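Entry 12.
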Amino acid sequence: MTDEGAKDKITGKAKEAMGKLTGDRRKETEGKTDQAKGKAKGAMGDAKEHAEGVKDSLTGDDKH
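Predicted 3D structure (tokens):
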């Protein structure tokens, strides 16, 4: 997961918890949205890494 994705997930969890604690449904929903955004960024980062690995395998550019 990218650092940006992890940051969004942590921020989202905090917002959601604060929203639940204070009864602020909007803040709770923002938190859930931020968490989903973080998961999406993480998935995109994972997909990019996978694609680069496939490319390296096909071209013989093994960086390790």
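Annotation: The two ends are 20 Å apart (CA to CA). The chain has a mean pLDDT of 89.
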